[in-house]
Amino acid sequence: MIIPNSVEELATYVEKGRNVFFFTADWCGDCSFIKPAMPEIEAAYPEYTFIEVDRDVYIDVAIEWGIMGIPSFVVIEDGKETGRLVNKLRKTKEEVTAFLTSVKS
């Protein structure tokens, strides 16, 4: 999982490639629930690069992208959003993989 160091670096992942943006925060219990499953999810979808976006560090990006709850996932391929799993609910590994499979199809 890539953790960008600046908004400029984050923007480079939006512009090119097949990327999954994982919006999270240290204080978020539901984020902590899904984090241990993320390495397995990443391994199951090698065609994607996963980018961890700390909602508190990149609050302006979260607002601009309409991220109202975390954990949330946004898939962007070469600058175009192709899917989003954005809400305030806890997500299971099965829900995230079902979402990524539906986007991939």
TrEMBL record:
Signal peptide: none
PROSITE patterns, per database record: THIOREDOXIN_2 (PS51352)
One of the Pfam families matching this protein, by short name: Thioredoxin
Superkingdom, natural source: Bacteria
Residue stretches making up the Thioredoxin domain: 1-105
Coiled coil: none
UniProt name for this protein: Thioredoxin family protein
Organism: Pseudolactococcus laudensis
